[in-house]
Amino acid sequence: MESASTSSSTSIITPEDVLESLMNDGTIDALRLKIINQLKANEELKNTAIRMAEQSKVLNTPGAEKQTKRELFDALRQELE
């Protein structure tokens, strides 16, 4: 019994684990919806987002429309970092 608690206390949660959990439990979708609603309400923010999307190498790469949402999300995150 002691070894079970030891192994659980030594497990490391990575940023990828956290991101996957947030994506799986709907948190990312909820944030996306809030952002969309704010974009609709804020014209300057909307125009900035449109301009960034138009200039995105990830979104303008041939075949981008065939990628999954997760693949696009990961690629966009890398592009913006």
Describe it.
- This protein is mainly alpha-helical.
- It has two domains: 12-41; 43-81, no CATH class.
- The chain has five helices and no strands.
- The protein has helices at residues 2-10, 15-24, 27-41, 43-55, 69-80.
- The longest helix has 15 residues, at 27-41.
- It is globular and about 45 Å long.
- Residues 1-7 have low confidence and may be disordered.
Number of DSSP strand runs:
0
Helix count, DSSP H or I runs of 4 or more residues: 5
Number of domains: 2
Low-pLDDT parts are 1-7
In whole angstroms, how far apart are the ends? Answer: 43 Å
Major sheet: none
The helicity comes to over 70%
Average pLDDT across residues? 86
Structural class: mainly alpha
Shape: globular
Radius of gyration: 18 Å
Fraction of residues in β-strands: under 5%
Order of helices and strands: HHHHH
Summed up:
The chain is 73% helix and 0% strand. It is mainly alpha-helical and 81 residues long.
Topology:
Blueprint: H1 2-10, H2 15-24, H3 27-41, H4 43-55, H5 69-80
Helix pairs in contact: 3-4
Region (Disordered): 60-81
Protein name: ANTIGENIC HEAT-STABLE PROTEIN
Organism: Salix purpurea
